[in-house]
Amino acid sequence: MRSLCKAMTEHADAWPFKDPVDTHDVPDYYDIIKDPMDLKTLSKRLDSEQYYVTLDMFIADVKRMFTNARTYNTPETIYYKCANRLDSYFLAKLQAGTQVNNRNQQ
Question: What are phi and psi of 56, to 5 degrees?
């Protein structure tokens, strides 16, 4: 999970997701998005070593981050497009990691 989070954070399209949304920049964000998520929060939860007891919990938070971006922003915005590209990257990394783990278990 740490390697996935690090890889996402280093991706070129991660910039909108690196920190929580600032209400000074987007005053109504938390009126619309009730369960926010960002890469910094994901990283902090990983560092606690107690929050993500399963990979599925981590994946759910990552998916929520992208869903929030698509909910708040319209498809033509850079934020929506970054969410789509980073989501695709995440899924490819996740699938590659799952395949490696499956091979190692055989």
Answer: -60, -35
Give per-residue pLDDT as tens, 62-85: 999 999 999 999 999 999 999 999
As to burial, measured by CB atoms within 10 angstroms (0-12 exposed, 13-18 middle, 19+ buried), residue 76 is exposed
Contacts of 84 (CB under 8 A, 6+ apart): 66, 70
- Token pair 């964000």 is found at 29
Q: Count the alpha carbons within 13 Å of 20 in the hemisphere toward its beta carbon.
A: 12
DSSP secondary structure code for residue 64 in this structure: H
Return d(Cα 59, Cα 95) in angstroms, integer: 12
Euclidean distance between CA atoms 37 and 63, whole angstroms: 9
pLDDT band at 99 (very low <50, low <70, confident <90, very high): low
pLDDT at 98: 67
What is the torsional sign of CA 23, 27, 33, 38?
A: negative
